[in-house]
Structures are given as structure tokens and as C-alpha cells.
Amino acid sequence: MSERSVPDPASPGLAVVIAARDEEWLIGATVRAAAALPGAAVVLVVDDGSRDDTAAVAGAAGALVLRHGANRGKGAAMETGAEGVRLLEDAAPRSAPRHLLFLDADLGESAAGAAPLAEPVCSGAADMTIALLPPTRLRLGGHGYVGAFARDGIRRATGWEPEQPLSGQRCLTRAAFESVRPLAAGFGAETGMTVDVLRMGFTVVEVDVPLEHRPTGTDLRGQLHRARQFAAIARALAERELRPALARRGRRLRQDVRAAASATAATARRASRRRLMGR
Ligand SMILES: O=c1ccn([C@@H]2O[C@H](COP(=O)(O)OP(=O)(O)O[C@H]3O[C@H](CO)[C@@H](O)[C@H](O)[C@H]3O)[C@@H](O)[C@H]2O)c(=O)[nH]1
Ligand SMILES: O=C(O)[C@H](O)COP(=O)(O)O
């Protein structure tokens, strides 16, 4: 897709990135709605190893499409999308890099409601926004235990408690995005990103948006999906709680090595003095 002109030349504008796996039914409507968002200069779909016609449908709807030959998970798809945006900008340099607006592929026409998500980032009021979907549309499937787990982990790591921690509909500046790469793997990406963005001192706000996404069911497939989310979030949180401990351990190790090295040098100096005096 060719890049469309941004109405305000002084504004960085938006690059919409959509990770999609087996989304041929909704991706076309999502892409068309995303392309019509104010400031959306490019819509980039990352087909994450789909087994259906997601890539072709997205391309026909006007998106630029990048493909993973095999499924690599949501976090990797988001990173591929951001890398695609960077390559586009390298080819046509701009004064300000575009903000990234991440949307899921299953929003369909409701993606048209994502505009308020970008406003605080475009105005400089926030470095990252997270979408708050209407609760009636959100709560259709399970017991919300995956969300509760992520929420609790983010609060323990940062002191901030998001209402909808899993939400992948989010907008952030490139500076914020670049500072938190690499993202956590798979469905841990959002939880890890929120922790890292906050720890880097960036501002995060949740924004009400009238988006609708496909609810996760309560059948076996739905519960396995939740189990995968849970495992990825647990990993993202464990990595983040471990990092300061590892850094502390690393500092201690370096101190011990330095101390041992200077003790060895002192012993060698003493031995050499003794040898000289003995002569
Ligand atoms: O291996 C995968 C799996 C999914 N997706 C895409 O990721 C998005 C979210 O996946 P979905 O199956 O709809 O998961 P949900 O449980 O509905 O997702 C909720 O929870 C996820 C984190 O656990 C967030 O990424 C989503 O934004 C949030 O709506 C969709 O566009 C998928 O096509 C991929 O790109 N690769
Ligand atoms: O779709 C989602 O956001 C997750 O799979 C969690 O779903 P639940 O809140 O219905 O358990």
C-alpha cells in the first residue's frame, strides 16, 4: 500500500500495526476501518503464520502485509510490524517517527472507534495509551482470571493497576516502544510492555473506546487459549521480577572478581618485594 498524506505535516501521524493469525473473516473490515482513522498514514498487517487467506484479504483491503512463514506469536508479530514501519521510514526519512497504534485483527468495523486512543499520544499528554473496552462487550467468556493475574503482576512490578491489562489495542510513541524492545514473547507482550514502559518513566493512561473484539469462548479451545495466555504472562512477569535480582547478582560477582584480582595483585607485589629484598 502506498503511504497516504498526513493532514497536519507537523504531526508525526500514525502507523497502524495489526498482528493477525487466521483472521480472514474480520481482517478486511479491520484494515478498512483502521485506514480511515485520523492521522493513519500506513496500515501494516503482520500475518503470523496464518493457515487461511488472512494475508491476501488484508492486502486486498489496502494494507501493507508482512508474513511470518511460521507462527511466532503475538509479541514477535508486533515487533515485525514495528520493524516494517522503521524500514518504511528509512526509505522515506521523516522529521518525526510515526507513533505506533497496535490494533487486533478481530475488531472489524469497530476499529473505527480507535481514534481516542491515539489522541493523548499525538497531543503529548501520554507516552502510551491502553484501550478500555466497554465491559458489557468484554465480559462474555471466562472468569477473567488471566486478566486478574496480569493486573496483579503489573501492580506488584510497578505500583500501577490497569483496569484491562490484556488489552492489545494501544498507542505509543516510538521512543517508548524502542525503549522496551525486545517485547515479551507471545501473549506476554502487553503485560511485559506495560511494566517496562512504566519502569522507564513513561506516562501511561487507559482510554475508553467503543471497540468490540471476538470474545474467548468457554469451550476447550477457549480454555486452552487462556492457558497459553496465562503461561506467557507468567513468563513475562518472571523475567521482569528476575531482572533486578540478576543485575544485583551480576554487580556482586563483578565486585568479587575485582576484589580477588586486586588481592592477587597485592600478593604478587609483596612476593616480588620479598624477592628483591632477599637479593
Ligand atoms: O499466535 C498468534 C495469536 C494471535 N495473534 C493475533 O493477536 C490478536 C489477539 O489474539 P486473540 O486470539 O484475539 O486473543 P484475545 O484473548 O482475544 O486477546 C486479548 O489478550 C491478548 C493478550 O493475552 C491481547 O493481545 C489482545 O489484544 C486481547 O484482546 C489477534 O489479532 C490475533 O490474530 C497473532 O498475531 N499470533
Ligand atoms: O479474550 C480475552 O481477553 C482473554 O482470553 C480472557 O478472556 P476472559 O476474560 O473471558 O477469561
Automatic annotation (TrEMBL):
Residues 16-106 form the Glycosyltransferase 2-like domain. It catalyses: (2R)-3-phosphoglycerate + UDP-alpha-D-glucose = (2R)-2-O-(alpha-D-glucopyranosyl)-3-phospho-glycerate + UDP + H(+); an NDP-alpha-D-glucose + (2R)-3-phosphoglycerate = (2R)-2-O-(alpha-D-glucopyranosyl)-3-phospho-glycerate + a ribonucleoside 5'-diphosphate + H(+). InterPro entries: Glyco_trans_2-like, Glycosyltransferase_2, Nucleotide-diphossugar_trans. It is an enzyme of class 2 (transferase). SUPFAM superfamilies: Nucleotide-diphospho-sugar transferases. It comes from the Bacteria. Keywords: Glycosyltransferase, Magnesium, Transferase. Pfam families: Glycos_transf_2. Residues 270-279 have a biased composition (Basic residues). One of its GO terms (molecular function) is glycosyltransferase activity. Residues 260-279 are annotated as: Disordered. Its EC number is 2.4.1.266. The keyword Phosphoprotein does not apply. Residues 260-269 have a biased composition (Low complexity). Its cofactor is Mn(2+); Mg(2+). Belongs to the glycosyltransferase 2 family. PANTHER family: GLUCOSYL-3-PHOSPHOGLYCERATE SYNTHASE, UNDECAPRENYL-PHOSPHATE 4-DEOXY-4-FORMAMIDO-L-ARABINOSE TRANSFERASE-RELATED. This is Glucosyl-3-phosphoglycerate synthase. It comes from Streptomonospora litoralis.
